[in-house]
Design a protein that fits this description.
Elements (H helix, E strand, L loop, with lengths): L2 E3 L2 E4 L1 H9 L6 E4 L3 H6 L26 E4 L4 H12 L5 E4 L21
Parallel strand pairs: 2-5, 3-4, 4-5
Antiparallel strand pairs: 1-2
Protein name: Rhodanese-like domain-containing protein
């Protein structure tokens, strides 16, 4: 069960892994780090939209969709979740601890972002 921190629900590693492993799950996970961080190691299948691009790419996101946001430590993704919430997105979550706490499978090359 996600924990609430600062008005945002936070998923832990086990919860995020379960979401990613369930093909019936329609929650979209987005990495909000910088491209160099993403390329160094990211969760397979998770698209990249750098934090600074989010305000300019809101039209690519659906306010009715459920999202989990990921960054290095959970700080930037928390800020993006708060920003999206302020824009009317009601189903946004943060990945608690970020990639620093992810010790499962990672990829090291760029993948298509959420807009493709």
């Amino acid at each position: 069960m996600p924990q609430q921190i600062g008005g945002i629900s936070h998923f832990d590693k086990a919860e995020l892994h379960a979401i990613l492993q369930d093909p019936a799950n329609d929650i979209v996970v987005i990495d909000v780090r910088e491209p160099f961080e993403y390329e160094a190691a990211h969760i397979p299948g998770v698209p990249l939209i750098p934090m600074g691009e989010i305000p300019y790419r809101l039209d690519e996101l659906d306010p009715e969709q459920e999202y989990v946001l990921v960054c290095r430590s959970g700080s930037r993704s928390y800020e993006v979740a708060r920003y999206l919430q302020a824009q009317g997105f009601t189903r946004v979550h943060n990945f608690l601890g970020g990639m620093l706490g992810w010790d499962l499978e990672v990829m090291t090359e760029l993948e298509d972002d959420v807009s493709h």
